[in-house]
Amino acid sequence: MDWGKQNRLSRIIKPATGKAVMLAVDHGYFMGPTTGLEQLDQAVNPLLPYADTLMLTRGALRNYIDPGVDIPITLRVSGGTSILNKEALLHEGATCSIEDAIRLNVSCVAFSILVGAEYERDTILTFSEIIDEAQAYGIPTLCVTAVGRDMVRDARYMSLASRLGAELGADIIKTYYVDGFDKVVDSCPVPVVIAGGKKIPELEALQMARNAIDAGAIGVDMGRNIFQADDPVAMIQAVRSVVHDGAAADDALGLYQSLKSGEVGAAT
Ligand code: R5P
Prior knowledge:
alpha/beta
């Protein structure tokens, strides 16, 4: 693999553990001011020391994030519909050029393919163009799969969508955790991370992360289950303990509760 691309990937997937905690705050690209991200900078700044990369749009990056901060950026470069449209998330195109991604010094670009949706061909072909352009500059690509209301989220579908993304040339696949997730990972030749999905109780989110890692995922690309937690700074550290330190979900919940109550200090 090209040195520059490997270097960028190594900034996200930490060589010491081979794992990654990706903090997703790109929801505004179709949902507007999502609960917890109304003041994105205030929500995100305290979380940055515990994130391996920040996933967001170029507008959020330019308007909310200090360029002096040391955090690798995963830039969302797809969009085109809003939550007000019944086709929201089912028909995305490119929303940012590779030149602007380079100008923003990003470590990765992320694009949604809508496998099984009416416009799957458009998204697959546009993502292929993005991969060609990113590849020319050594920028890794993350393929977001399996979003959309009507998709049956099972291991068969996730395997299909994930393998498809990898065969297109993506470097990382982001998908959702399902029963039989080891089959999804085993048939995908590139690293897989899971999205968190809608907010669920902390223990369930930590158990889902544990199960995904045990099945072979290299990490999480998690948003709402971190920034909508009662204590987001405690939650991201608990998630980190699962992903990087091999913590059981119960132990991670204990860490969350201790940090939340102020019983133990934040990790450095
Ligand atoms: C969806 O495609 C967005 O990219 C979100 O970043 C993604 O779903 C992860 O966020 P959450 O953990 O809130 O689902």
